[in-house]
Write a structure and sequence with these properties.
This protein is of the alpha/beta class. About 55% of the residues lie in helices and about 10% in strands. Helix 18 packs across helix 21. It is globular, with a radius of gyration of 33 Å.
Length: about 600
Amino acid sequence: MPVRLPGEPGRLIGVDLFEWVERFDNIVSIVVGTVAVLAMVGGSAAWQRRRPHRAAETIHSVRALVAAQRDTVPAHAYQFLDGSVAALSAIYVPQRVVPGTGPIGPVQAFDADDLLRGDAHLLLVGPAGSGKTTFVGHAVRELARGFSGTVRGRGGAPEEVGLAVPATMLVDRSLPEALAEAYRFGVPAVSTGQPPSRHGRWLVLVDGVDRISDPNTRSRVLGQLREWAARVDHPYRLMLTTRPLAAEEATALRTYFAEHHLLPFEPDDLSTFAERWFRDRVPDPERADRDRDRFRVDLARVELDGLTGNPLLVTLAALSWERRPGTLPPGPAELLDRFVPHLIESGAAAVDEAAAALSRRGAAGTEVAAWLDERIEGVCEAAAAGWLRDGGAVPAAVDWTNTYAPVAPGGLLRDWPGRVRALLLATGLFLPRGADIEPLTRAVAEYLAAGPVAREWPESRWLELMADPSTRGTGAFALARAGRATESALTRLAGGTGLQVLAAGHLVGAGIPMSVEVRDMILAALLRLWQAGEASLAGECLSVLGELAKAPAIRRAVFGIAADPRWPRQVRRAANTFVAVPSLRQSSPD
């Protein structure tokens, strides 16, 4: 009869016992065979006795790891230019996501923390500064806080422990090798190749896939991650974070990864952020609440074109407000003054790769590499201007480098357009769009394109930009970035063509700093233009005046113009007609 190992039905040890006796026909052999079987059974029992001891060592090291993760405050993804930033654990605002393969809408949005529960491998996408790395740190900490090391109930999902690893560590390493390298300094060391507990698994958060700037290298890393996601013989669930990828890369990943997109901050998120920020920063609770309310009022007063939907920009706004309490920049320019350098610096690896490739082309290449290292902002500005002009960002940037570099880099490297595209994407200021790219937002493109105008300040060129509605945003950024007295420029604008007068009115609405005298001069020019009755301009002029008059200070100024004999009769007549509008009469100054 077959001999079976106790506790393991169906597993045969050796051959049929009757055949075995016939073959040897010796009782001694039977005894020896029986002893051998008992030895095997005893060995199995001994292994089972030793296994709990090894498991205890494993769970001890995992508990030490999660204890450290609970106590570790996740770091900000960016180094801020001034001031200390509140700890992420204190100011973290719960983030929301939407599935990446269906229509995006509020009905489909759900808490990003829900991604920490489930079995699917995940791809988390968001633009620069949207909070991807922040979420990785938050996820690791949340999983550590909930870890017990015990088996969940029947049918429950495996208990997970988070392991965060930069995607760049997977270059020329396997996933287990990258994890071992990332966590080799743990005390005691954790074996990341084994599950963290009997029925647990690791949630491996591979952060910043987009930071692998070389397309071929990134393709190899993504291929490895797809292979791991296709397998089931390992203790890993994967979550990848990235800025938007090229269409072909995202499509290939969706076979194994459920794609989700981080949503921008909404008004409720801003309120939560403000409350947590000032409660953490200000010891006196009453003062913290006052500062919170003042900050929110200032955010509502200053038009930032929706840029404060980005968590990084909200943080920069709070730092700016703290530096000069009660004031915020009159528009997005000052925030972008701080935001753009952060992002340009984040693309340093791609610049280094391009410079290294150039340096291999001899002395001319070395000279161009040194030039490039100091001109990345110029490359970004050229790309933004090209996109605003005709949609061609990469061709414009390539042309700019070939024109202004000591030696045309396109003549040194055949793949130069691809390298320019890679370094522009690496900054996070641009997103992939087919073979070309597009800026993060139109406001970012206008800010960048305004750089040369602001530095060189050809006033005639600036007046041209302001006269064209399609380039007015660039002109406004140029004025804000020029760092010079704006009074003369605004006076020139108010005395110009009808479109330039309208542009001046928009600048008043944007809160560009100016004296009361210049502001009233612009209001008078708007009233004169409206009174002239030019059909092509009168309607827009009235619209601008109506928007401006929502502010009490502007209403008082218009009433003052109507009653001041120093203004020309035509202007006073227009002001009297305007203030006769019922809504203005009802809100006349006190």
